[in-house]
Amino acid sequence: MSNLIPYNKPYMTGKELWYVSQAHHSGQLAGDGKFTERCRLWLEQTIGCKKALMTHSCTAALEMAAILLNAQPGDEVIMPSYTFVSTANAFVLQDLVPVFVDIREDTLNLDESLVEKAITDKTRAIVPVHYAGIGCEMDALVKIASAHNLMLIEDAAQGIFSSYQGKPLGSFGGLATLSFHETKNVISGEGGALLINDERLIERAEIIREKGTNRSKFFRGQVDKYTWVDVGSSYLCGELICAFLYAQLEESKKITEERLKIWKTYHSAFESLESEGKLRRPTVPNNCSNNGHIYYLILNSLEERTKFIKFLSERNIKAVFHYVPLHNSPAGKKYTRTYGNLSKTEHLSECLVRLPMWMGLESQPVIEAVYNFFEKNV
């Protein structure tokens, strides 16, 4: 192979620049124009949330969720350590304490059996992260959150078009967040959304998103002027970003189907290697649907994974590992605490490698390289 096979390659539907030009022609480039409205309605109708607010990133949506929690400094939020830094950082910015619990061996999601034991009188929320677009055990988490009067905030950054028990991810928690970063299934370069399922949070969420003002009410004609009424920041997504995103949302069914074809090709190809104990494939529980976001392999050690990534790189194939556990990071040690032993988090994070996954990918060279690695390293 002479050409590099990248880990990710952003997919364009062909309508993005046309919609951007329409937004430009309309003369409204700031947020909450007609394309923002189209994206909002699309998400509300597809996921079934009460309100979707478009943001400039999933990080922004998480920060809004942390403010909406209305907690006191020192209060705690339970989440996995195996996640992107924004999941924890959003709450640390509000002087809250992320409490990390271990993940499940099969899905790499928050281990629901450990959550209740980690709850203290300072716990205010549970933040499950749907890793690789595979749903956490939401029935159990909803039950725990309800029993202890805790907010459930889904980090569904990777979870769009996936479901749990036939219900879309992002529709279970009082709040949920999505990402449209260029590495996701549908993209806008940067971009995100806050999904609100608890109607009581809608009005304050709009205020927080508009720098702490009641500007949204003003534009709806509910007040004759707008003013500063609460804390907030500039979390809006620009209209050009939403114009780009809407072209992707229109093609989302096709995108998901094509990604799943590649995912299933990988999954079938590596079945024999798994049966021989050379690697582990992703697990998709029967009560979950998969959106083909990530295809990963679990190797047997950090040393083997390092050799594997190097082997593929020498063949112009870009395979990458993923999160470094947050509890072991400098900021993690300073701002967070852990509950119990995080041995699964530590081991799995050292052994996981993600294979190239993008629309139009020819997966056969990747599959052959994986087999070649194990033939040479038996």
Oligomer: single chain
Structure class:
alpha/beta
Q: Which regions are unreliable across 5 or more consecutive residues at pLDDT < 50? A: none
Q: What composes the largest sheet?
A: 8 strands, mixed
Mean pLDDT: 96
How are the strands of the largest sheet arranged?
1-9-8-5-4-2-3-11
Overall spatial form:
globular
Gyration radius from CA atoms, angstroms: 21 Å
Helix amount: 25-40%
Order of helices and strands: HHEHEHEHEHEEEEEHHHHHEHHEHEH
- Proportion of residues in extended strands: 5-15%
DSSP, total strands: 12
Give the end-to-end Cα distance, rounded to a whole number of Å.
Answer: 24 Å
Q: How large is the count of helical segments?
A: 15
Structure description:
The model has no long low-confidence stretch (mean pLDDT 96). The strands form three sheets. The chain has an eight-stranded mixed sheet with strand order 1-9-8-5-4-2-3-11, sandwiched between helices. A two-stranded antiparallel ribbon has the order 6-7. It has 15 helices and twelve strands. With 378 residues, the chain is an alpha/beta fold. The chain is globular, with a radius of gyration of 21 Å.
